[in-house]
């Protein structure tokens, strides 16, 4: 089954982090592949781990993956866009 690709920037804390958790646990027929974005690799990795710990595997239908992005940097945006294009071919939902 093809997953819906969701990219959420600034997602290692606050509203972005809560949005990741909602998509991760959502029970829609088509599961989500969530790209949890943030500027720091360490903070992104910690946030991914927190999502997985807070939502036991029985609650999760989606997948979450950390990506590094600085939305103030054109280079960072272009780099991630190229990676997403080559890996998934699209983004279905973008939250900044």
UniProtKB/TrEMBL annotation:
One of its GO terms (cellular component) is endoplasmic reticulum membrane. InterPro entries: Ergosterol_Biosynth_ERG27 (IPR051593), NAD(P)-bd_dom_sf (IPR036291), SDR_fam (IPR002347). Pathway: Steroid biosynthesis; zymosterol biosynthesis; zymosterol from lanosterol: step 5/6. Its EC number is 1.1.1.270. Gene3D superfamilies: NAD(P)-binding Rossmann-like Domain (3.40.50.720). It is an enzyme of class 1 (oxidoreductase). GO terms for molecular function: 3-beta-hydroxysteroid 3-dehydrogenase (NADP+) activity. This is 3beta-hydroxysteroid 3-dehydrogenase. It comes from Saitozyma podzolica.
């Amino acid at each position: 089954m093809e997953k819906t690709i969701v990219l959420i920037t600034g997602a290692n804390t606050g509203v972005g982090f809560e949005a990741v958790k909602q998509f991760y646990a959502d029970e829609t027929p088509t599961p989500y592949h969530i790209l949890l974005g943030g500027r720091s690799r360490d903070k992104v990795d910690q946030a991914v781990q927190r999502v997985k710990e807070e939502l036991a595997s029985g609650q999760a239908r989606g997948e979450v993956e950390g990506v590094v992005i600085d939305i103030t940097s054109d280079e960072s945006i272009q780099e991630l866009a190229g990676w997403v294009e080559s890996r998934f071919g699209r983004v279905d939902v973008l939250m900044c």
